[in-house]
Amino acid sequence: MAEFSQVLHHPSFSPSGNPSMPSFDVLLEPDMPAVKNSVDNTRKEIGTRFDFKGTSASVELKEKEKEIFLVGDSDFQIEQISTVLLGKLSKQNVVASFLDMEAKIEKIGGDKVRQVYKIKAGIDAPLAKKIVTAIKEAKLKVQASIQGDTVRVNGKNRDDLQVGIALLRKEFPDQPFKYENFRD
After folding, report:
1. Among 131, 166, 170, 173, which residue's Cα sits nearest to residue 152?
2. Which of 52, 69, 137 is CA-nearest to residue 108?
3. Which of 2, 20, 26, 154 has the fewest beta carbons under 10 Å from its own?
């Protein structure tokens, strides 16, 4: 009898006893090394451009806080730095929608001004709801659930998940989603 008391794990079941279904997570995160390269290239261009010589123009990335600081002598100079930064980001294939550029330009003493761009990461609630409803309305053999700032998609087999990815790419062409944590 003792040999039958061990629990045998079936390959289609997880150790908790629930049937495991193939799944993946939909993420919306920028490529931070590409953002860092863009900021570094912007800094180099600011250092070599004639119109920025002798000014306090600078750009700095704070990776832990996910913020980019733009410093200049005037609002116009901040706009020029922003234009250079956005150009460098697009060359690195980082979509500008990852930047929250709504912050006001603020004076920081003397004749210097600063603007802070926050780097957005994660799927916000309205977009997550749109993803879930798009998958439900397509009547695919997959289910989507919101889990914090990601959306988990479950299906019975891998082919269903690939159809789900194709749907998301078609429905949200402007969103640079990442598809990670594939599980069988």
Report:
1. 131
2. 69
3. 2
Residue indicated by tokens 């998940």: 161
The HSE-up count of residue 55 (CA atoms within 13 Å, CB side) is 25
Segment-wise mean pLDDT, segments of 10 residues, the chain, 184 residues: 42 47 85 90 90 87 88 88 90 84 84 88 86 86 86 88 88 84 80
- Cross-strand bridge partners of residue 60: 69
Torsion of CA 29, 127, 82, 37, to 10 degrees: 10
pLDDT digits (tens, 9 = 90+) for 132-177: 888 888 888 888 888 888 889 998 888 888 888 888 888 888 888 8
CATH number of the domain residue 75 falls in: 3.30.70.990
Asked whether residue 39 falls in the same domain as residue 105, the answer is yes
- Domain count for the chain, please give it: 2
Give, in order, the Cα–Cα distances in Å from 103 to each of 69, 78, 89, 106, 109. 11, 12, 19, 9, 18
Count the helix, strand and coil residues of the chain and give each as a percent rounded to the nearest 5: 40, 25, 35
State whether 128 and 85 are in the same domain.
no
